[in-house]
Each structure stands twice: as structure tokens, then as C-alpha cells.
Specification:
27% helix; 6-stranded antiparallel beta sheet; 9-stranded mixed beta sheet; alpha+beta; 15 strands; binds 4'-deoxy-4'-aminopyridoxal-5'-phosphate; 285 residues; 2 domains; D-amino Acid Aminotransferase, Chain A, domain 2; D-amino Acid Aminotransferase, Chain A, domain 1
């Protein structure tokens, strides 16, 4: 992805895509001192852009890493990058990380915190799953406890087991992996939250050790507006058998129906389709 045309915002400046580089002694590369955001711009407007910038700053705080930009400055950087590339529909990736400093080691008090804003054109995250329903593997790794790692941060370190689990899933012909958490409850996919439908009511994991996704919160609001009962609670794996519909939510995934998790099957039902369509309309409104 490094050798192509385009413009990236880096540490306050727009630079040619090929020049947006870091040194190998970048702290983040060795110690995962990095937080990021994934956003989507639709028709020239980033959906919930401010919420994403706020979450980025919060993630930085959770890692004890002060990001030297305000929400307003981050917003400006995103739109400057989009405009420079001529994009009105794109995925936006903001990353803030500890760079290379005067010395190298776990302690990084003397390393600068850097930020880059890039983007690319990105269609449906799960390909044709939007109509057919995605097939998910069950990850062998568990989402960790909030006492082990700051699970509310969108931090690079939390994604190590996501890449491993997604690779294992792809090797079995699945689009993604579903994680259970350290207690055994159903948690989230490698880059998306999960919802289930049973007898017209919706069940979704409590966000007590998973990312409380911005799309997740948006979709819960849409459901409650429709007078659909939503239960945010701990979900046991054995319950998967009794759920009739399932979907994933995420900025990249949007609302994607799920047809299968491990040996459990779900139908792409009317509530799933209704929410997926309504979400698509909302982000473009
Ligand atoms: N969980 C994980 C692990 C994710 O990476 C994402 C994508 N950011 C989500 C959930 C969904 O979050 P959002 O709706 O804010 O994109």
C-alpha cells in the first residue's frame, strides 16, 4: 500500500503518499504504542467524524499518550486529506503513535507522539455477504479482561489476536472470526460488533470488555426508535442455537448480515434487512 499516488496528512502537513514514512526505531512498531480510528466519508461528509476524533483522543488518554491535537484540528486534517485526494466517498484512517525518540526502550517519555491521516476507497467490507450473510469461524483466542489491557481503547495491541484469528478463519473459507471473551461470553468479531434477533427482540453483548462501536450505538438508537426491545447483556455461547437472525456492525462492515457462526445458522431476516437498509440511508442523508 506504500507505492501509489495520493496524499497523506502527516504531523501537520500534506505529503505525497510515497513519502509518508517512519523510522524502524518507531516506538509503536516495537511496543504497540498506537491508537487509531476507521471512519467512512459518504457524499463528502464523514459519518460521526467528531465522535471518532473524540474516541481517538480518549484512546490516547487510556494509553497514557497525550495526542497533541484537538478534535477541531483532527477534523480539519481529515477533510484536508480527502480534498487533496479528490474523494467524497472513502474510508478514513487516523493513527496516532509514539515515534522514534532520543533513546529506545519500553519507557517512551522522550518519544514524540505523531499522527497520520490517510484514506482509501473501500467497498463492502465482507464482499457479497451483504446479501447472502457472512460465514464466521469461532476464534481460538479470547477478548481480554479490562484489567489486562485497556479494552475501551481502539489500540493497536488489541488487534494482534484479531489478525491471527482472521487468518485462521480465512484459511477455513470464512469471512471473519467471532470472539468469545475471557469469561466465555460471546464478544465481537475482529473489527465489528454483533447483534442477534430472537422472537422480535434484539440481544447484543454488554460492551464491558469489547469496543462500544459507534455503529453499534447508532444501530441501538435506530432499533429503539422502532420500538424494538434491545437487551445489552452477557450472552452464553449455548444461546447461539436459539437466535434466528444475526448481523455485524462497524464503520467498515456497516450492517452486514451473518448466515453462520461455527455450526450455528441464521436467516437473513426482515429486521436485519430493514436495519441494514435504514443504516445505508442514514449515513448518506
Ligand atoms: N469492534 C472492533 C474490534 C473493531 O475494530 C470495530 C471497528 N472499529 C468495531 C467493534 C466497531 O466499531 P465502530 O462501529 O466504531 O467502527
Amino acid at each position: 500500500y506504500d507505492d501509489r499516488d495520493g496524499v497523506i496528512w502527516m504531523d501537520g502537513q500534506l505529503v505525497p503518499w510515497r513519502d509518508a514514512k517512519v523510522h524502524v526505531l518507531t516506538h509503536a512498531l516495537h511496543y504497540a504504542s498506537s491508537v487509531f480510528e476507521g471512519e467512512r466519508c459518504y457524499n463528502g461528509k464523514i459519518f460521526k467524524g467528531v465522535e471518532h476524533s473524540e474516541r481517538l483522543l480518549r484512546s490516547g488518554e487510556l494509553l497514557d499518550m497525550a495526542i497533541p491535537y484537538t478534535v477541531e484540528e483532527i477534523e480539519k486534517a481529515k477533510y484536508a486529506m480527502l480534498e487533496a485526494n479528490g474523494w467524497s466517498d472513502a474510508y478514513v484512517r487516523v493513527v496516532a503513535f509514539r515515534g522514534a525518540g532520543e533513546d529506545m526502550g519500553v519507557s517512551s517519555s522522550r518519544n514524540p507522539v505523531r499522527m497520520a491521516v490517510s484514506g482509501w476507497e473501500w467497498g463492502a467490507y465482507y464482499g457479497d455477504a451483504k446479501t447472502k450473510g457472512a460465514k464466521l469461524d469461532i476464534a481460538k483466542w479470547k477478548r481480554p479482561s479490562p484489567e489486562t489491557i485497556p479494552t475501551a481503547a481502539k489500540a493497536a495491541g488489541l488487534y494482534m489476536i484479531c489478525t491471527m484469528s482472521k487468518h485462521a478463519a480465512e484459511a477455513k473459507g470464512c469471512s471473519d472470526a467471532m470472539f468469545f471473551d475471557y469469561r466465555g461470553y460471546v464478544a465481537e468479531a475482529t473489527g465489528a460488533n454483533v447483534f442477534f434477533v430472537k422472537d422480535g427482540e434484539v440481544h447484543t453483548p454488554d460492551p464491558d470488555c469489547i469496543l462500544n462501536g459507534i455503529t453499534r450505538q447508532t444501530v441501538i438508537g435506530m432499533l429503539r426508535e422502532r420500538q424494538v426491545v434491545v437487551h445489552e447483556r452477557h450472552i452464553q455461547p449455548e444461546e447461539l442455537e436459539g437466535f434466528q437472525q444475526c448481523w455485524l456492525t462497524g464503520t467498515a462492515a456497516e450492517v452486514t448480515p451473518v448466515g453462520q457462526i461455527g455450526d450455528y445458522n441464521f436467516e437473513v431476516g426482515s429486521l436485519t434487512r430493514d436495519i441494514a437498509d435504514a443504516y445505508e440511508k442514514m449515513v448518506r442523508a
